[in-house]
Amino acid sequence: MKKFLKYLITSIVKYQDYVSIKEAEEGDYLNLIIKVHPKDIKTVIGKNGLTIKSIRELVKIKAFKKGKRINIKIEE
Predict the structure, then answer these.
(1) How far apart are CA 34 and CA 73, in angstroms?
(2) Cα torsion angle, 43, 49, 51, 53, sign
(3) Domain segments of the chain: what residues?
(4) At how many degrees (to 10) do helices 2-12 and 50-65 cross?
(5) d(C-alpha 42, C-alpha 50), whole Å
(6) What is the pLDDT of residue 34?
(7) Which distant-in-sequence residues (6+ apart) come within 8 Å of 73 by Cβ?
């Protein structure tokens, strides 16, 4: 999941070197925390949050196929 999410994020941001993703398990959920360059936060979130919603859906579908539950958060 982490590798797939990093691929999606680095594909859309300008400062690819600043992309980092942390994993933290909480119960039966896997939390993925995205950290990007401050100038790229708008790009990742998108207009009305549509980009991040789409990214979350893609990663959740992949996780569901593997029988996992995922939460994705953006760290500022």
Answers:
(1) 6
(2) positive
(3) 2-75
(4) 160
(5) 11
(6) 95
(7) 31, 32, 33, 34
- Report the 10 Å Cβ neighbour count for 41: 16
CA distance 45 to 74: 9
Whether the pLDDT of residue 1 is over 90: the answer is no
Q: Tokens standing for 38? A: 């401050």
Residue 37 tokens, joined: 């360059």
For residue 70, what are the β-bridge partners? 30
Whole-prediction pTM = 0.87
- Are 24 and 2 contacting, i.e. CB atoms less than 8 angstroms apart? no
Q: Tens digit of pLDDT for each residue in 11-50?
A: 999 999 999 999 998 888 899 999 999 999 999 999 999 9
CATH superfamily of 2-75: K homology (KH) domain (3.30.300.20)
